[in-house]
Amino acid sequence: MSDYQHSSLVEERFFHLDVEGLRKYSPEFDSAYSRGEGEIEIGLGDLYAIAPRRQRSIKQYRRLVRFLKRKGVDLQIVSRKTKRLASEEAIDVSNHNTNNNDF
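Given the sequence above, the corresponding structure tokens read:
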């Protein structure tokens, strides 16, 4: 992936609708964006409703996350899949039979 960046003016225009949607959706985001610092967590489904992309995937929002990071806002996108994986990591697998060939 390239390290190329657009000018800040081009990025402002490109992400304008996303930022405005987030500001209307979340007073915390609006405050953080105005201050130029803060950490905001949002569900992938909510973000997709605010700022639709071609696919509903966290990867589709990488550029928006990087743009907001440069503005001082750390946007954390959470999906049900991510939460499910985190809870599965907590499962104790020490009692599982390693010689099980049922796959």
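Residues 8-86 form one domain. Try to locate this feature in the token string yourself.
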